[in-house]
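Sharing a chain and its predicted structure for anyone who wants a worked example. Both blocks are below, sequence first, tokens second.
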Amino acid sequence: MFDNLSSKFDKAFQILKGHGKITEINVAETLKEIRRALLDADVNFKIAKEFTVTVKEKALGQKVLTSLKPGQLLVKIVKDELTRLMGAESASIKLNDNPSVILMSGLQGSGKTTFSGKLALHLKKKFKKNPLLVACDVYRPAAIDQLGIVADQVGVSVYEDREEKNPVKIATAAIEKAKKDKNDIVIIDTAGRLAVDEVLMDEIKNIHSAVNPSETLFVVDSMTGQDAVNTAKAFNDILNFDGVVLTKLDGDTRGGAALSIKSIVDKPIKFIGTGEKLEAIDIFYPDRMAERILGMGDVVSLVERAQDQFDEEQARRINKKIAKNQFGFDDFLSQIQQVKKMGNMKDLVGMIPGVGKMTKGMDIDDNAFLGIEVIIGSMTPKERSQPQLINHSRKTRIAKGSGKSIQEVNQLIKQFEQMSKMMKMMQGGKGQQMMQMMQNMQ
């Protein structure tokens, strides 16, 4: 996420290394690089220029704090300005009506249909809602099929009418059905086009007028940069939407849409899509995203994701095993399964302070755990429950059975032992020390 932009910001801040204070000359050189980084990320020229002017005024207007080096001070100013540029605070979704109607808008290919399913799952899990998905794309049968598949995957109902060709009638009929079936959320997936046109705008405007949604969201592919911002303005002029959804942030995102869209349409980014999995949806926090862009990590989001996948009963069971020194490879494997549910690996690594910079440019595969799973799968039940039994001859058999080398088996056993020790430390009341270590890495 924003790897290229992060690298260029990092390069810009290197200019101030070794300087005792911020001056007109060194700050101008740094901000020239920052402006170039923003323009390369496809940020609007006017916004990039205003951003660097504001940062310069704040940098030269402050006395350097004794505890901060000039580079650190500028990083803080840039972080604060990036946060402000992206909206300053997170914006919540309005769910006061019954049913609350959420209208999805955007161009074809922006990810509206998939995101409708992600949002349904999010509201179902987080707010205990009972959503109904509505198929209002009357032009593409494949879109109706796709929404049906997504609805099945997230375990919610879908309303469709393949005979009716008027999306307004489909939408209003769906709301009546939702009232009857006690669905408290109605998410309307609308048709898109490859470009903004009069027919598309008239249609979405008519649906909007007919259903009077509690929330209108504009879904945009974050990889489209300035085009995304221009499209957002066109839709906002017609719909006066409530918020923006940025999809495909796990791809080769330059960042232009995230950094420009709030300034252009004055509407908050409410959600982001961070991967292909239907759980890959996050509330957008401008301050956390600014920290991610500047390579500071995002521990809060990492902890929140972990808590979402946290199984209290399983945790109690594992804690008992750790206390009795009975933590085995089956438990280790269950922990891995929990981590895998949290999202794609590169995104998770980027949330760890300091580690994101170290792994920049590296290809971190989502199948990173596959080798571990294969090795554990080649162990006998007894070996998995009593790892201390695994001697050299057993390692040889495990390596042969898994198609891995002895070195890889040894490496896994070492990782397992380290994790066991760490978990024992957490139980021994040293958890606070470890959290402090994590904070110090920032």
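Comments welcome. Residues 429-442 have pLDDT under 50 and may be disordered.
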